[in-house]
Amino acid sequence: xxxFEIRISGKELREHIAAKALLRGIGExxxxxxxxxxxxxxxxxxxxxxxxxxxxxxxxxxARDLSKYSVLKAIRAAAMPTDRKAQEDAGFExxxxxxxxxxxxxxxxxxxxxxxxxxxxxxxxxxSGYAGTGDALVPVELLADQFVExxxxxxxxxxxxxxxxxxxxxxxxxxxxxxxxxxxxxxxDDATEGSATFGQITLSPKQIASYLPVTHxxxxxxxxxxxxxxxxxxxxQIALGIDAAILYGDGANGAPTGIAxxxxxxxxxxxxxxxxxxxxxxxxxxxxxxxxVSVLRYAFGAKMRGAFKTAKKFASSAxxxxxxxxxxxxxxxxCDVSNQVKTGDVFFGAFDQIITAIWGGTELVADRHxxxxxxxIAVFNDVDIAVRRAASFAFATTAASAGTGDExxxxxxx
Length: 414
Prior knowledge:
The protein is built from 11 helices and 13 strands. It is α+β, with helices and mostly antiparallel strands. Helix 1 runs antiparallel to helix 2 (28-45) and helix 7 packs across helix 9 (224-248).
């Protein structure tokens, strides 16, 4: 009989499976596989908690549930409310939407959990994109996984932001603005009174939306790759919109305030391509403010990278060393190159000091145009962005009006 140590707490289910395993003389790996299978079955039989108690919209779905979810069925049902078959086919998708609605206010649309969108995208191995309204995607044999993508910007710094999800209502994050300090004195001296001041970073839901028209024939396709194609388009456009707002959001017309327009960042106005000395200045200002609290990196566009590849670090030096270093760094710092950053701009900072707050899942509203049966899809997300520590960022620009950050470099509210 095989023997092995069982290092699992003595719950009744686990003890029962372990006893059977010992009696049958199975190995440890086989035992663990059986235990995991039993635990999954037991978990599936438990009543589900409300979505609001489980964080990000869709986290309550199992892998099996996600494999059943179809974004296309959800769109068809939303677009054709009087079509009995479309409504019946989307029964599961409606159930998921109702569960997600417990965690967020609805505009009357059908809520698609983020986990389902992500799963649809990952269900095909190749990329996909979008052109026109989709009529070109419906030949005799649909090859959506071979579709030629729209050329678009790469995501910039949004991927480094600290994400808060599963939120309900406005959020306030306390911050310390000043400290009480310390002093020296003789043995009988009284302690000098000091004080600390505190503030808050507030976040509230702000609407970001995207619009996608698709043809009737594309909508009627059942290929998994079409499901992934539409999901990818919806996700990418929202993600690019959030990413752009992190950099340049102006705080107007419902938009959040991004780095370039945040008071307290160090801002430098350039007369042309930044020199190596200009970049070192950005780095030094952040360190001088004690704001180099985590990994620092650069973000700039493709044309700026090209300029750095030909610009010498030291113009008067005999060395041919350029600002862009052979390992893809600038002065040893990693760089993100994306055309999300405007030509002539350079960002430097600790981008995990950006907070991206997300309320609920993606809400979908669809309607059909009666003349041509085209379906117009609109998706909405509730998102907000905040700079946690303004002093952790520096921004150099050739356009004096590109942002309203503090050029003095003095630290604002963290």
